[in-house]
Amino acid sequence: MPHFTRVASLVSLLLLISTVRADCECGYTVNGTLYTDLTESDFLHMKNINESGWIPQKYTVDPDLARGPYGKEASPDHIVLNPLESRFDWAGDGINGGDAGAQVIVSGGDPGEGGMVRMGEMNTNRTDILYGSFRAGIRLTGTPGTCGAFFWYLNDTQEIDMEFLSSQFNASSHPVNLVLQSQQSLDAGFNADDTAAFQVHQLPFDPSGGFHEYRFDWFSDRVDFYADGVLLKTMSGDGVPSDPGHLALSQWSNGDPLWSAGPPAEDAVMTVSYLKGYFNSSDTARQDDWRNRCTDINAPRATCEVPEITEAPQGNVSAKTFFFSQQQNMTVNQSIPSGNPNTITSGAWSVQASTQGVFTILLLSSFVLLAEWWW
What does the pLDDT look like over 135-161, one tens digit per residue? Predict the structure, then answer.
């Protein structure tokens, strides 16, 4: 090969290396709003909660503080992973029987006077979540006497809740309680009923009859609540949180006849098939990382639009929802827990490997060309 051709080939290859980009380096868009970070959990295939980015909670709250005749006892063994046996399936029974996914359990039976009701709660290890779009596939329990919740939390005056009271479910009533816990609700004794940041919304389906996607989009001036892609309610005003916090999934009971009721007569199971969050981080290191990787926001595939759900995620077709973490050539350094059926260990590893693999191949090729030219 003539020296000029070799040099030209080498230069072209080095230029290609310098412009190799991963998808979504500048973030993810939801209805035109850009978010820099993501967290995705595929509970249908997850087998190890300790590598999931979620922390099963352990705490107790006595009856007085729980504001009911019974206290609450959060126990890590009340978060149970029940994955599908095959990575190619997206619906059906898990390996332990019953719905596949992450089971959030409330123990049934009478705990005795002033006793504790055992419950399940898990929180994200990310506490830097500041504004974003969050959605979860959930099947609520049909056993009366619990409160199932999908929420974002900082403290008792900054909280975004979608809560389901199983005692309210019947043939003609399937409500979800939409709540922004604020200073106003705290001053009213943790009662948001008389504030503008509380609404009971009737759903057109039975939340205990199958999986549905529940979602809230949090902006600096409002929160939009959705079910299966349909906007339910927009809340604004002083109750909208303004500081970073974490996501949580829980199910509990304290026997309060005005809220959770119960405790349930038998174990009550809420099952979560997935959780996805696209958000901005309050952490300066995360912000610096975004600035370093997002070198051209207008480059092709620099930003990625988040697909919308238009039907309930049930059955092998509709339950196979889109995960960025299960695609090739994704940007590195994102919060992608284990459970991805297309990876060996964790989604974060595979995303990084897919981009680095291309880079490695190109780099080795350039060395080969350089060697040919030199000798």
Answer: 999 999 999 999 999 999 999 999 999
- Which amino acid type is present at position 91? A
| Spatial CA neighbour of 109 closest among 146, 160, 147 | 146
Q: How far apart are CA 105 and CA 141, in angstroms?
A: 9
| Cα 30 from Cα 147, distance rounded (Å) | 29
Answer whether residue 99 shows pLDDT above 50: yes
**pLDDT single digits (tens) 69-80:** 999 999 999 999
Q: How many CB atoms lie within 10 A of CB 292?
A: 10
β-partners of residue 209 are none
pLDDT one-digit tens code per residue, 274-326 = 999 999 999 999 999 999 999 999 999 999 999 999 899 998 889 999 999 99
> CA angle 242-245-247, nearest 5°?
125
Mean pLDDT, the chain, integer: 86
User: What separation, in Å, do the N-terminal and C-terminal C-alpha atoms of the chain show?
Assistant: 11
**CA 237/CA 33 separation, integer angstroms:** 20
Count CB-CB contacts under 10 A for residue 283.
16
Distance CA(234)–CA(329), nearest Å, equals: 36
Tokens of 201: 């919304």
| Helices 3-19 + 347-374 axis angle, to 10 | 160
Question: Positive or negative CA dihedral for 228, 230, 231, 233?
Answer: negative
pLDDT of 351 > 90? The answer is: no
The pLDDT assigned to 336 comes to: 56
Q: How far apart are the C-alpha atoms of 219 and 235, rounded to whole Å?
A: 10
Residue 49 has pLDDT above 60, yes or no: yes
Q: How many CA atoms lie within 13 A of 330 on its CB side?
A: 22
Neighbours of 276 (CB within 10 A): 24
CA angle at 154 for the pair 151 and 159, rounded to the nearest 5°:
45
How does DSSP assign 339-368, residue by residue? --TT-SS-HHHHHHHHHHHHHHHHHHHHHH
